Amino acid sequence: MFKLLSDARLHWLAATGYSLLIIAYLLQQPGSPTVEIVAPVAAPDWQREVAFTIGHIVGFGVLFVLWYIALRHVMAVRAAVTAFTIAMTIGLLAEGLQNLLPQRNASLYDVAMNTLGMVGAWFAIRHWQL
């Protein structure tokens, strides 16, 4: 079991699969979800905005960790920088593509929360020496 969890191919598969999932989630239209975890269509209120903010922080924190784990076997020294670059590119790409969709728009606040999640994940990795 532990040998399977340490398999580099599994790490790459997890990082790639989660990347595709987060892109699909961020690009789905309100009212017709591609991924069944759909945000409610409603007027903005503080509870909804807090939920979205937590979603961005946690979602991109996990994305960063998965890419870091996948990359540290290949490039130990630059794994964090590369994982950050991949996750940031996914976030910026998704935000940019949201401008092309009806009922969606890009948000610098979302990009900032994505970044906060990645930086927080990096500090957690350093603290627990993962």
Shape estimate:
globular
**What structural class is derived from the secondary structure elements?**
mainly alpha
Number of strands: 0
Bin the strand percentage.
Answer: under 5%
Arithmetic mean pLDDT: 87
Poorly predicted runs are none
Estimated helix fraction = over 70%
| Alpha-carbon Rg, integer | 16 Å
* Tally of helical runs: 5
SSE topology string:
HHHHH
Q: How would you describe the overall organization of this protein?
A:
It is globular and about 45 Å long. The chain has 130 residues and is mainly α. The protein has helices at 2-5, 8-27, 46-71, 79-98, 108-128. Helix content is 70%, strand content 0%. The protein is built from 5 helices and no strands.
Characterize this entry briefly.
With 130 residues, the protein is mostly helical.
List the helices and strands and how they pair.
Blueprint: H1 2-5, H2 8-27, H3 46-71, H4 79-98, H5 108-128
List keywords for this structure.
mainly alpha; globular; 5 helices
